[in-house]
Amino acid sequence: MVKYILCALGDLMHLLEKIKEKSFLVFGRAGIDLYADPAGTSAETSEMFCADLGGSSANICAGLSKLGCQSALVTSVSDDVVGRFCLNRLAHYGVDTQFIKIKAGEHRTSLAVYESRLDNFQLCLYRNNAVDFQVDNQDVDQVDYASYGALITAGTVFAGEPSRGSTFRAFEHAKKAGLPVIFDIDYRPYSWSSSKVASDVLTRAGMASDLIVGNDEEFGFMAGEYDKGLDQARALAEQGKLVIYKKGSEGAITFAEDAEIRTGIYPVTAIKPNGAGDSFLAGMLAAIAHGCDLKHAILRGSACASIVVSNPGCAPAMPDKPTLEAFLESHPGPTATL
Questions:
Q1: pLDDT digits (tens, 9 = 90+) for 44-74
Q2: pTM assigned to the model
């Protein structure tokens, strides 16, 4: 037991020190978001839409960049106006696009149409023949992993081939270069051929990761039973992994070594449900990168999530440093935890 605790401590220290390098290699999708304008408008009756960058991994990249870190995205986009729009918006947010492959043919960049409202919220996601699944071994082999502090991926990247295999290959490259792997479970049922395949693959990804972030439903899905999600999170933590178990309005439980850190949220008047998880992860990692202890980093991630759900869009709603500091200074939170 003493030997295990010492190993876990070493793993956690290595993870946190690598995050402090402030340079992240991110795998996953970029897409275009169209959201009805003004806020509160139904998409099906709207006469105006705003357009900006979307996609979970692209959002994480934008959030990290806006908070003073470096981020590079590894993905594919279609060789058309939508793909070029995404590249331009990534560059606008300061994201490194050198590892993004522009792919001709019938594959297409994802499109999300949604609303800035909670009542009867609708999100329509077009991912037919998704181009981001076309990242292959050659794409991941070209990266100089030693130039980065950590690898991040969202679970959607594992839903199709060849990106599933190539991302696991990237995990191997990262480990050889001494990079920790950060995994946001991000389970989207519509992306997978079956729940059995999804459970098996996401569990494999979790076992290969050093930091795992997910909500109660996602951990429950990995466990095979939704009411066993907390047990699944604890089991992964017992293997020396840093695990963040998000509980929505009840905050989060972080399992770090033999400690359980409970944190609350910053209540806001939300206008939409999406984007919170991406902003949470970007905010938490940026806070660690800038020297915050783990508990305060998680709280800053929670504040970022609250900012995003209370503003239209995802990437454009990600806070920069002044916005985050102003929010923290003016907000009475976080909520208390049991």
A1: 999 999 999 999 999 999 999 999 999 999 9
A2: 0.95
DSSP single-letter state for residue 249: G
**How are beta strands 242-246 and 252-256 bridged, if at all?**
antiparallel
Helix axes 229-237, 216-223, angle to 10 degrees: 80
Q: Print the domain residue range for 15.
A: 2-31+55-76+133-330
Does 281 map to a domain? yes
With tokens 């023949």, the residue in question is 129
Q: Would residue 85 count as lying in a domain?
A: no
Residue 120, φ and ψ in degrees, nearest 5: 55, 35
Separation CA 216–CA 195 (nearest Å): 17
- Counting beta carbons within 10 angstroms of the beta carbon of residue 235, is it exposed (0 to 12), middle (13 to 18) or buried (19 or more)? middle
DSSP-derived secondary structure for 117-158: -STT--EEEE-TTBGGGG--HHHHHT--GGG-SEEEEEGGGG
Return the half-sphere exposure (C-beta side, CA atoms, 13 A cut-off) of residue 160.
16
Any idea of the CA torsion for 271, 70, 112, 200, to the nearest 10 degrees? -100
CATH number reported for the structural domain that contains residue 282 in this entry? 3.40.1190.20
Domain count, the chain: 1
Rounded Cα distance, 317 and 57, in Å = 15
Task: Enumerate the β-bridge partners of residue 125.
Answer: 112
CB atoms within 10 A of CB 45: 7
Does the residue 164 lie in any domain?
Answer: yes
Give the burial class of 1: count Cβ atoms within 10 A of its Cβ; 0-12 exposed, 13-18 middle, 19 or more buried. exposed
Confidence of residue 1 (pLDDT cuts 50, 70, 90): very low
- Is position 105 within any domain? no
| Residues found in the chain | 338
- 213 is written with which tokens? 């972030």
